[in-house]
Amino acid sequence: MTLVDTHVHFHFPDFDADRHETIERARQAGITRFINVGTNLETSVASLHLAEEEKGFSAGAGFHPHDAARFSEVDLPQWENLARHQKIVAIGEVGLDYFRNLSPHPAQELVFRHACRIARAVDKPLILHVRDAFPDIFRVLSEEFQKGWKGVFHCFSGDVPAMKQAVAFGFHISFSAILTYKRNDELRLAAREVPSDRILLETDAPFLPPQSQRGKRNESAFMLETARCLAEVRGVTPEDIACLTTENAANLFGLAE
Ligand SMILES: [Zn+2]
Ligand SMILES: [Zn+2]
Question: In angstroms, what is the span from residue 235 Cα to ligand 2's centroid?
C-alpha cells in the first residue's frame, strides 16, 4: 500500500532539525510521494529546491492569502517562471481565507486572480486554500474560467453543497486530519459523498495533527490515521482508499509511476 501526501510543507523551519529522518519515516509508513507546497515566492523556491533533492517529491508554487498584503506585481514574472518548472506540478497554495483575515479581502482576491491567470498560462492545476470564503471563491473561479478548471480544494472544510459545487466545477477534494476531529461530523458527511475519482489525502504538516497526536507537530507518517478514518466513513478498506487516492493524485498532478 502506497500513498501520496498531496499537501505538505517540509521546507518549513519546524523540520530543520530532522527533515530527512521525518521524510524517511513517512516512506517507511508507505507514503512515497509528496507535493511540497509553497506559500509565497521565497517558500516556493525553497519548496522547489527540496523537490529537486528528495526522491518522490514535486512542488507547488503559490502565494497564500495570508501573505497577500505582501504581494507586489514586480513578483509576477518570477512566479510565472517558477510555475513553468517541470518539478512544479501546481499553482498553490492560493485562495481566500476569511477566517483568519490576515490580509485584506481585495488583496487576497487580486493575488488569487493572478494565480488563475498563471494556471491558465502554464496549464497546471490550482491548489486552493479556502476558509469561510466559498461563495467568493466560486464567483472568482467562474469569472476566470469559462468552462471550469482542474485543481484541488486542499484541507477541505466545507459542507455537502460546497463539496458538490467544487466537484461540479471540476475540482478534487482533499482531506487532512481535521477529518479525524470529533466535532467534524458535517465534514465526514461530505467525505462520504465525494465521487471516488475526486478524493485526495494530505497532511498539511507541520500543521493539523490527527486526533491521536493532537498538540504535536504533524508529519506525513501520521496520514495513515486520516486514511483509516476516510475508509471507515466510506465503508471501504484503507487499501481501497490508498489505491484510489494515489491514482487520483497521479492523474491530477501528472505524477509519473
Ligand atoms: Zn492552506
Ligand atoms: Zn498548507
Answer: 28
